Amino acid sequence: MPMLQHDGRQLYYEVSGHGEQPLLLFNGLTMSTAAWTLMAPLLEPRFKLIRLDFQGQGQSERRVQDSYPLTQQADDAAALLDHLGIEQCYLAGLSYGGMVALHFARRHPARLSRLLLASTLAWSDAANVYIAQSWSAAQQAGGPGLRFDISLPWLFSSRFFVSSAQMLPDLRTIAATVDWPGVERILAGIREHDARSWLDEIRVPTHIIVGSEDRLTPLYQSELLHQGIAGSTLTVLPGAGHAIHLEAPAAFAQQISRFAEA
To answer: Which helix (H) or strand (E) holds 208?
Structure first.
């Protein structure tokens, strides 16, 4: 099991694929490296995929602290690139991973060739804070089952509930395995997120994607990113919700591959 020893902690990572171009994938909030299972076969023929579990996720160590700052997660990813001997990569961040990716681009700009931000936030606004509080309250009141039920309309499109409802029992089982104390520390880091004042510092070629039915990280957030990052491009995926790695993996992979050629 590959582990990076960094700053007194162990961070789990995976490397796969047959391409020469390194593509670093950043997980969403409750994801792990396993969450990219539907997309990996679509990307591995072209890219060298690098996936990691941030602190508080999956198989990585969970140091007990008040929060897991986005800047710390970004620096951990830079340390992984050092460990793998990779000077520069293409980075795609989904949701929480997009927030980390913004901080990575600000702190380690020379490490990036391209940046793709998917279903993410320019800043943690008041609505986002209340959504997170509702998930925490559901976890405390009814455990992972109630928390999963409360999160569903934020994560998926109307079309998904009609066409892919058979996935929900498995997703519920996976949700029950999430370490909630670790997620709470991640959420504490998200509450400090506000990139609006320094988006103009990001100079790497950037592409932004969001689903037209994304209720959790709505279109206005992607528009803020697009307006703030000079030269960036924005694509809206019709009919898609927030969790595009699950409900629109082919479209998501296509956006990643197309931007590699842009």
So the answer is: strand 206-211
In tens, the pLDDT along 90-141 reads: 999 999 999 999 999 999 999 999 999 999 999 999 999 999 999 999 999 9
| pLDDT tens figures, 243-253 | 999 999 999 99
- Tell me the one-letter amino acid at 115: L
Place of tokens 């109307």: 158
Beta-bridge mates of residue 123? 194
Residue in 194, 252, 261 with CA at minimum distance from that of residue 228:
194
Distance CA 52, CA 23 (A): 12
Question: Can you state the percent helix, strand and coil of the chain, rounding each to 5?
Answer: 50, 20, 30
Question: Are the CB atoms for 247 and 216 separated by under 8 Å?
Answer: no
**For residues 202 and 63, what is the distance between their CA atoms, to the nearest angstrom?**
30
* pLDDT tens digit sequence for 181-213: 999 999 999 999 999 999 999 999 999 999 999
Sign (positive/negative) of CA torsion 26, 32, 33, 37? negative
CA distance 260 to 262: 6
Largest CA distance in the chain: 48
Hey, is 123 helix, strand or coil?
Answer: strand
HEC sequence for 226-256: HHHCCCCEEEEECCCCCCHHHHCHHHHHHHH
Residue 160 tokens read as 């998904």
Residue 262 is predicted with a pLDDT of 81
Tokens at 181, concatenated: 């104390």
